[in-house]
Design brief:
The chain is mostly helical. The chain is built from six helices and three strands.
Length: about 150
C-alpha cells in the first residue's frame, strides 16, 4: 500500500514521501502541484514534513501497488533475510577516505548554487527557501522525537 500523487499519479511509499514529492515539485515550479496543495492543504509552505504528510494523506486515498520499491523491502514481509543488495549500496563505502578540505569545497559549491556556476537571484531565493524549509522540517522532527 502507498499513495499515488493526486496530481501526476507517481507512486509514493508513505505519507512522508507524498508530502516531500508534492512540496518539492511545487517549489521547483510545477504549477499543478502547487495549485493542488493551495486548494487541499492551505498553509502547506509553513508546515514540516510530518504535518504536511498528515494533511495531504487525509485528501488522498491509499493505493495498492503490485511492486512498490521492491529493492528496499524484499524478504522483510515473509520473515526472511533482507536482500543482499539494497538501494544505495554503491555509496556505502564512498567518501570514507576523504580529506576534510572536501567539506570546504562542498560549502563553496553550495554557496555558488552547485555546479560551480553563479546563480541568479530567483535561483538563489529558491535555494534559500529550500534550506529554510529543511531547517524547519528538521526542527519539527527533533521536537516530535523529544517530546
Amino acid at each position: 500500500m502507498g499513495y499515488a500523487c493526486p496530481v501526476c499519479s507517481d507512486p509514493q511509499a508513505d505519507g512522508g514521501h507524498l508530502a516531500n514529492h508534492l512540496a518539492f515539485t511545487a517549489m521547483l515550479g510545477d504549477d499543478a502541484h502547487e495549485a493542488w496543495l493551495d486548494k487541499h492543504v492551505p498553509g502547506w509552505g509553513e508546515m514540516g514534513e510530518t504535518e504536511l504528510a498528515d494533511a495531504a494523506t487525509e485528501e488522498v486515498e491509499t493505493v495498492e501497488f503490485p511492486q512498490v520499491f521492491e529493492d528496499t523491502v524484499g524478504g522483510l514481509d515473509d520473515g526472511g533475510d533482507p536482500p543482499a543488495e539494497r538501494s544505495g549500496a554503491l555509496f556505502d563505502d564512498a567518501g570514507r577516505d576523504h580529506d576534510h578540505a572536501d567539506h570546504a569545497h562542498a560549502d563553496r559549491m553550495r554557496d555558488r548554487g552547485g555546479a560551480g556556476e553563479s546563480t541568479d537571484e530567483e535561483t538563489a531565493a529558491i535555494l534559500e527557501e529550500a534550506r529554510e524549509m529543511t531547517r524547519r522540517m528538521l526542527e519539527d522532527d527533533g521536537e516530535d522525537n523529544n517530546g
